């Protein structure tokens, strides 16, 4: 049974729920205003909520789109992929930000997913762990991750690296319904609800827990491990490299974690396993028809892809972009 901690400080990690891409109000789909079909400048409001993984990129898209169209106001709110999907299906927002595949059950309810970026979920450790050098030299396999988060058969750092160290691994997971934990669990054939460990709300919460505990092991979207400006690792937290070929060590071709740029290149090149690499989606309730909303989504799928790399994300493949645009145009 997963424990849930840090609830008292959850508000500190709800920054995405209170920081918007614009200071203008309005947070529901009903606030969107359709522009006239007579060539006038776009105007209206667009709302997004959901995955912490997609939040930084969505804010950048919103800022850039509003510069192109000053009469459009876009609100971006975090809260996790589960919130994004719920808000989209209930009509509370124009787009839910979802960091996992859209399920068949959600599609039956009207969910339409548009892939807009790609990133990855990574295991994370504290850089001051006494065994840090040995841990990152060996890396982690999917089977080891399963034994830590699922079976509990690996409990100490000594059991992990193969020595007599008896310090218990402080395992963290997500307490909120999220794409990160679901995608991470999928790496070793499980689901988020199967994960053990102390549950912490949100990506910022898990990152903070790992930074504060030298014996910690967590899971994070890469945007919460690296500085989005310098692309260097954030203080106190590091990626635990994945031993892809499972030979008990991180080979040179598996060692691409020094910067966010090198990791995202590895994801784009297919060197990082998928899962836990995954597509990120904007999800709507039915194919959008509001001209303002359609224009924003088309921007994201075209010019907006050019900013993905700069914010630390991988662009979607052209075939997926073409399919998404065809889906969008077919409704008009």
In terms of topology, how is this protein built?
Layout (H helix, E strand, L loop, with lengths): L2 E3 L9 H4 L25 E7 L4 H14 L3 E6 L3 H9 L5 E4 L5 H5 L2 E16 L5 H7 L3 H10 L5 H5 L8 E5 L4 H9 L10 E3 L1 H11 L3 E6 L15 E3 L20 H9 L8 E9 L5 H11 L6 H4 L6 H12 L3
Parallel strand pairs: 1-7, 2-3, 2-4, 6-7, 6-8
Antiparallel strand pairs: 4-10, 5-8, 5-9, 5-10
Describe the structure.
The protein is built from 13 helices and ten strands. It has helices spanning 15-18, 55-68, 81-89, 104-108, 132-138, 142-151, 157-161, 179-187, 202-212, 260-268, 291-301, 308-311, 318-329; strands at 3-5, 44-50, 72-77, 95-98, 111-126, 170-174, 198-200, 216-221, 237-239, 277-285. α8 links the parallel β6 (170-174) and β7 (198-200). The longest helix is centred in the first third of the chain and has 14 residues, at 55-68.
Brief summary of the model shown:
By secondary structure, the protein is of the alpha/beta class. Helices cover about 35% and strands about 20% of the residues.
């Amino acid at each position: 049974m997963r424990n849930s901690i840090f609830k008292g400080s959850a508000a500190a990690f709800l920054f995405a729920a209170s920081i918007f891409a614009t200071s203008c109000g309005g947070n529901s789909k009903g606030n969107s205003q359709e522009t006239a079909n007579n060539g006038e400048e776009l105007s209206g409001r667009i709302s997004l909520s959901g995955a912490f993984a997609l939040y930084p990129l969505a804010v950048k898209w919103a800022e850039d789109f509003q510069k192109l169209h000053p009469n459009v106001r876009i609100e971006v709110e975090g809260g996790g992929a589960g919130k994004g999907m719920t808000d989209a299906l209930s009509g509370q927002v124009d787009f839910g930000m979802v960091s996992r595949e859209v399920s068949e059950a959600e599609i039956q309810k009207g969910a339409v997913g548009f892939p807009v970026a790609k990133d990855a979920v990574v295991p994370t450790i504290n850089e001051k762990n006494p065994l840090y050098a040995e841990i990152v030299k060996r890396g982690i396999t999917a089977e080891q991750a399963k034994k830590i988060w699922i079976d509990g058969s690996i409990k100490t750092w000594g059991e992990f690296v193969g020595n007599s160290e008896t310090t218990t691994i402080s395992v963290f997971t997500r307490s909120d319904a999220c794409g990160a934990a679901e995608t991470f669990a999928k790496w070793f054939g499980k689901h988020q609800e199967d994960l053990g460990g102390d549950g912490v709300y949100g990506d910022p919460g898990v990152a903070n827990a790992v930074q504060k505990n030298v014996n910690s092991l967590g899971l994070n979207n890469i945007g919460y491990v690296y500085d989005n400006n310098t692309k260097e690792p954030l203080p106190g937290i590091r990626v635990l490299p994945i031993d892809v070929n499972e030979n008990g060590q991180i080979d040179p071709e598996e060692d691409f974690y020094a910067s966010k740029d090198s990791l995202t290149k590895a994801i784009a090149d297919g060197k990082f396993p998928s899962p836990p690499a995954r597509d990120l989606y904007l999800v709507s309730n039915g194919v959008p028809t509001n001209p303002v909303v359609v224009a924003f989504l088309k921007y994201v799928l075209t010019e907006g892809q050019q900013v993905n790399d700069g914010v630390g994300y991988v662009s979607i493949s052209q075939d997926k972009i073409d399919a998404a645009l065809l889906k969008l145009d077919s409704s008009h």
